[in-house]
Amino acid sequence: MLETTMKARVHVMLKDGVLDPQGEAVRHALGAMGFEGVAGVRQGKVIELDLKDGTSEAEVADMCERLLANTVIESYRIEIA
């Protein structure tokens, strides 16, 4: 079994100004359901990583830059617990 000492949570969202068709579909569906108070929706993803002891936040950022986020259109935020 993999021994872990900490978890990382990576929040990936489309950058401001990038069209979010999934978010718009959710906003439209909520309005159709009677939830008229929602002016906009941005949809993203959360990736949880089980990290081995000694893995740095810089390494997680490198993972984001190289694979987990498309940094042309997405931004990310890392939480280490």
From TrEMBL:
GO terms for cellular component: cytoplasm. Its EC number is 6.3.5.3. GO terms for molecular function: ATP binding; phosphoribosylformylglycinamidine synthase activity. Keywords: ATP-binding, Cytoplasm, Ligase, Nucleotide-binding, Purine biosynthesis. It catalyses: N(2)-formyl-N(1)-(5-phospho-beta-D-ribosyl)glycinamide + L-glutamine + ATP + H2O = 2-formamido-N(1)-(5-O-phospho-beta-D-ribosyl)acetamidine + L-glutamate + ADP + phosphate + H(+). Pfam families: PurS. Pathway: Purine metabolism; IMP biosynthesis via de novo pathway; 5-amino-1-(5-phospho-D-ribosyl)imidazole from N(2)-formyl-N(1)-(5-phospho-D-ribosyl)glycinamide: step 1/2. Gene3D superfamilies: Phosphoribosylformylglycinamidine synthase subunit PurS. It is found in: Cytoplasm. One of its GO terms (biological process) is 'de novo' IMP biosynthetic process. Part of the FGAM synthase complex composed of 1 PurL, 1 PurQ and 2 PurS subunits. Part of the phosphoribosylformylglycinamidine synthase complex involved in the purines biosynthetic pathway. Catalyzes the ATP-dependent conversion of formylglycinamide ribonucleotide (FGAR) and glutamine to yield formylglycinamidine ribonucleotide (FGAM) and glutamate. The FGAM synthase complex is composed of three subunits. PurQ produces an ammonia molecule by converting glutamine to glutamate. PurL transfers the ammonia molecule to FGAR to form FGAM in an ATP-dependent manner. Belongs to the PurS family. PANTHER family: PHOSPHORIBOSYLFORMYLGLYCINAMIDINE SYNTHASE SUBUNIT PURS. This is Phosphoribosylformylglycinamidine synthase subunit PurS. It comes from Roseivivax isoporae LMG 25204.
